[in-house]
Amino acid sequence: MKINPIDKIIGSGFYTGFIPKASGTFASVLAFIIFLIPGFENPTFLMFLISVSIVVGVKIANKFEAEYGKDPYQFTLDEFIGSWITLLFIPKKIWFLIPAFIVWRLLDIYKPFPAKKFESIKGGWGVILDDVVSGIYSFIIIQLSIHLINRLT
Question: DSSP secondary structure string, 67-103?
Answer without folding.
Answer: HH-SS-TT--HHHHHHHHHHHTT--S-HHHHHHHHHH
